[in-house]
Amino acid sequence: MTDGRMLAEAIDMLGAGTAGHDLDGFRARYPGARVRLVAQREEYDGSLHHALLIKERDGATISLSWCPDRALPWPLRGVHRAGEHLLLRVNGVETPVARAIACLDFIWDESRLADRLVTDSLVREVLEEEPEPLTDAELQGAMDAFRRARGLLTGGAVRAWMDRNHISHHELEELVVLEASVARLRSRVAADRVDDWFAAHGHEFDVARVARVEFTEGPRVPAADGFLDAAERAFADGMARPGEVFATLRRGELSPETAGRVFGAAPGTVTGPFATEHGHLLIKVLAVEPAVLDGTVRDLVERRIFAEWIERRRSTAKIEWFWGTADRTAASGSSGVANSTGTAGRAGT
């Protein structure tokens, strides 16, 4: 196990209350151990309690905590008030956490929100063990990018957005730091793998620039030269659904059959019809371009590599949903999943 010097130093940090400041130096002195500082604010009296988790290469984990004299007694740690069960109150109408999670139950088939909650936990686990510190200049750049992405181009727009979402300036900075840290982590995970991944899978980012229309009647395929005129007439007659006409499609976004027909079509020709829920889709191919590893595609490749990395971590993670039933949790398709048989007041993921 760990030598006594490491444990003694860890206990000294906890006892002195300096673990948050001295953790980087501690990690540098003991690079063979993965170290994570866990903080918990006690609802009972507002006190802050820290624990240090030290995970060694053999997978064993040591948990250290330190409690000063006359601090909150151990039996009261974790005790919380009834109000902590509430997530939201609107005009006096309360939404408990249990009800909010039950709403998630209704969209379980898509499970996008459930997946994002699990992903957030997996990412925060890594960032707590291996943080991505930002300089003031990087933080300002991240803040500017955050504002641009949401159309918050003036100070007034930022304040209105913060008021609408009930977010303080400190909480906004925390969101920006998290977003920037995740981007840094994504680049670190992808590192030197981008070129090899692109060589093997780059065709998935081939681009087709198209005009597409979903017709509700037919399927009559108009001539390529009259495609847009036919689309206009059909829409005016109520026989075409509203939607984006001009689009950029990537090969990997389409089903293999659709991708084969779209990317196999000569530019200037119409392909289809493709059956849809409301009729059929016709696509006029305007241009086809092979993928090039430019800045945009490099970012997409990094995201794919990062998603694969997250999926590998998910497959070995212990995921506990404190709500619903075990069969629903198992139906999510994630391995290593545990679930309580009822709904608890505090989510544990």
Automatic annotation (TrEMBL):
It comes from Microtetraspora malaysiensis. Residues 331-343 have a biased composition (Polar residues). This is TIGR04500 family putative peptide maturation system protein. NCBIfam families: PpiC_rel_mature (TIGR04500). Residues 227-285 form the PpiC domain. Residues 330-349 are annotated as: Disordered. Transmembrane segments: none annotated.
